[in-house]
């Protein structure tokens, strides 16, 4: 059995993870960690009391980096579902993971459909010179743009060097109107409204045609298959992985 701890256990995603781990035949939930009325307040408290093979983190952008550092420095493999890590932080966690020979699985999105959306967008990037990303989330999401949008842009940038071909010189009469400019000039627009859970569309344009690739998450249960896949993968492979696409 894989001994699993959940950090951020009282959050909406944390609650879904607990249900998925509890229902799994090959995993045992050994710790619920949350600063708000958790079984344990910190990862250290849990580690001092139970053996943790893999910790699943769905907390906050401000805490995930320190949580991951603690795990990798204390013999715990970690699955990171919290977004908001910078490129520099991801690089540092990769270096530490490889040094300590511990697994660190970072996935901006654990939904199989979202991963396929990213892959399709990457393929389309070979054939279109202009593209933008719109991501739409609930209004309690703190980081913008979403990790999924950033990961999508990064994957697209591997296939094309510039996504603003023949655009005219632009002037924003309101700062930020054209969104954030990411890898290879891909513009990302973030929407935050109640009613959404997580949606994203990648829009490609060319003479006489528009291609839109869109994914919508209707509930948080859709992420659980990917989370459990990541746990099982890390249990067998103590490696650094960035993106669920690497194992499906």
Description of the structure:
The protein is of the alpha/beta class and 248 residues long. It has 2 domains: 2-106 and 220-246, NAD(P)-binding Rossmann-like Domain (Rossmann fold); 112-217, Dihydrodipicolinate Reductase, domain 2. Helix content is 33%, strand content 25%. The protein contains 7 helices and 11 strands. The strands form 2 sheets. Strands 2-1-3-4-5-11 form a 6-stranded parallel sheet, with helices on both faces. It has a 5-stranded mixed sheet with strand order 7-8-6-9-10, covered by helices on one side. Strand 4 (77-80), helix 4 (87-100) and strand 5 form a beta-alpha-beta unit. The protein is elongated and about 60 Å long. The two termini are 23 Å apart.
Describe the structure concisely for a colleague.
The protein has helices at residues 12-23, 43-49, 61-73, 87-100, 112-124, 147-157, 224-236; strands at residues 2-7, 27-33, 54-57, 77-80, 104-106, 130-137, 180-181, 187-192, 198-206, 209-217, 240-242. The protein has 248 residues and is α/β, with parallel strands linked by helices.
**How many separate domains?**
2
Look at the structure and give the CATH class of the largest domain: Alpha Beta
Judged by helices, strands and strand pairing, the structural class is alpha/beta
Q: Biggest β-sheet: count, sense, barrel?
A: 6 strands, parallel
Sequence of strands across the biggest β-sheet? 2-1-3-4-5-11
Per CATH, which architecture of the largest domain?
A: 3-Layer(aba) Sandwich
Number of strands: 11
